Amino acid sequence: MIATSIRTAIAPVLKLCPPECGIVSITKIDVSSDLSYATLYVSALKEPQLALAFLQDRVQELRKNLSPLGLRRVPLVRFRLEQGGTNRLDELLR
C-alpha cells in the first residue's frame, strides 16, 4: 500500500525526465519496515544512467511530494538501476 502511494506521488516527476532517456519507469519499490527508506528501482529504455542522475538530482522535490501521504515519517528516497530488466526485455523482443 505504501509503495503504491509512493509510486503515485513520484509518477509526475518521471514524465519530466529528459527525452534522451526514452521511457522511464519505476519497476519496484522497497520500503524499510520503519519507513525510514524507500528504494526505488528505475528502468529506462535508452539512457538509464541519465535517468538515474536526473532523479537523484530531484530527491528533495520527491520527498516533498511524499509529505502529503500523511506518513508518520517521510522516507529518504534512494534510486537504484533495475538489474537485468532490460536484458529480459531484449530477449523477449528477439
Task: Describe the 3D structure.
The chain has 94 residues and is α+β, with helices and mostly antiparallel strands. The chain has a single domain (2-93), classed as 2-Layer Sandwich (GMP Synthetase, Chain A, domain 3), CATH 3.30.300. 43% of the residues lie in helices and 23% in strands. The protein is built from four helices and three strands. It has a three-stranded mixed beta sheet. 16% of the residues are buried. The mean pLDDT is 87.
Brief synopsis:
With 94 residues, the chain is of the alpha+beta class.
Got a strand count?
Answer: 3
State the helicity in percent bands: 40-55%
Main beta sheet, described? 3 strands, mixed
What distance separates the N and C termini?
35 Å
Structural domain tally: 1
Q: How big is the Rg?
A: 14 Å
Strand proportion: 15-25%
According to CATH, the fold-level topology is: GMP Synthetase, Chain A, domain 3
Structural class, judged by helices and strands? alpha+beta
Keywords:
alpha+beta; 94 residues; globular; GMP Synthetase, Chain A, domain 3; 3-stranded mixed beta sheet
What order do the helices and strands come in, and which of them pair?
Layout: H1 2-14, E1 24-31, E2 37-44, H2 48-57, H3 59-66, E3 76-81, H4 85-93
Parallel strand pairs: 2-3
Antiparallel strand pairs: 1-2
